Each structure stands twice: as C-alpha cells, then as structure tokens.
Amino acid sequence: MAYDTLEIEHHGAVRRILLARDAQRNAQSQQMLDELMAAFDDAARDDTVNAVVLGGKGAHFSAGHDLKQAQAERADFTVEERWAYEELRYFDYSMRIWDFPKPTIAQVQGACVAGGFMIANMCDLVVAGESAYFSDPVGHTLGAAATEVLIHPWVMGARKAKEMLYTGGKLSAQDAHAIGMVNRVVPDAELGDAALALAQQIAKAPPFGLRLIKRSINRTLDAQGLRTALAAHFDTHQLSHLSEGFLTARDRGLASAIQKNPASA
To answer: Which SUPFAM superfamilies does the protein's record reference (predicted)?
Structure first.
C-alpha cells in the first residue's frame, strides 16, 4: 500500500513506520492517523515482521494533532460528532497500538507533544534522541482535560504526570529516562541506528513467545485498572469540550493554540 503521510522501511524482521509530514512537524492529520492504523494492521498481518519501530521524519517526532485541520473541519462539531471522531481516531487507534501483537519501539527526537506524546507512549519501549522533549500543554492552551488517552501516570508516575499537566511544561529526554519513561537516550545522529538495533535484537526471539510476554505484561497493567482508567478519562476529556476554557479557545481559533504553546516551538 502506498501512503501519502508515512514512509515505510523494511529491515529484515523489523518494520519502521515514519510519520512523514516533517514540514508540519509531523502534525497528525486525519489522513495520517488513518494511514498509520493501516500501516500497523499491515505489519500485524505480515508474518515476516517481528517488531515495529515508530518514528518521525525531520527534526520532530510529532507536535500533536493537526489543529489547523481541526479548526477548519471540526470546530463546530456537535458533542456526538466530536465524540465519534475522537473515540475512533484518538482513543481506539491509540489502544490498537497498545494492543499491537508484536513489540513496538517509539523512536523520538525533538517535539513529542500532546497527540505525539500519546502515540509514542502507546509503544512498548521508547528510544529518544538528546533533542527529544515531552509535553502535554492542552490544559493551558485548549482548556481540555489533557489528551484523550491519559497514559501519563502509567508511564511517568502520578506526581510527574500532575506536574506536567498542571504546568504545561516540558520533560527532557534525560529527565524522562531518569523516571523510567524512556528506555535509552542517544545522540540524535545515532537515534535511527540505535532504535533499529534494539528492534533487531528483540526480533531474534521466537515471535509467539514475545506475543505472550507482551500480553501478560499488558494484562498486569489491566489488572491494576489501566484500561478502565483510560476509558473513564476519555469520557472526562469529552466533557471538557463543553467547558468555558475550551469554548473560548475554540472561538479564538484552535490553530492559534499552536503559537500559544511554547512546547511546540
């Protein structure tokens, strides 16, 4: 399948999927999200693929959802329309990455913001370049209750998650590594090779055993309430779209949040 917003690389038993709207800092348009799921589905069906690397072309992994498209196409959505759109493309698509039957590695450089933070942290492992930073400022910029999938406390702990979300601030690659959210930090020039080498090492293991290991670890988190908590937050996030803060941001123009957000600079 040919993609307009992705680039696909084949490295033996490793498939690398690259977000490829680098002129837009890999902002996630509807087309990109749909193509991303198609690419993951294709990798799941391909028995020659034992591991997947998710990265982004250019200087940034992803600056989040495409707010310019959201302003142009979805600013006047009804509650029902917004719920249906976000349940599919933001929540369900993210959980499909989380539940992907093969090991996944996020390869992150530059901005990993909001929707970018969300999909990177759906992956099993994260390898970051030294330039990488992580942020979810939408409580400040959009008046929304974080992103649609509140993976934050599960990957960084409750206190750091509160600090990030309360302040709208950034977390460096080094700080993310120190709290265990990032597995490895490498120089940017070595990022692609480092992520690929890790994926190739993983891909040497028998794939069915890896699938069972991943399922068991994810079920451990489910037993602690992860899936229920994420689903509950999605409902809360939808409620925040009716708040005065969000409606003010919408009327001002969702796209202006890009300029307001210092983490996207």
So the answer is: ClpP/crotonase (SSF52096)
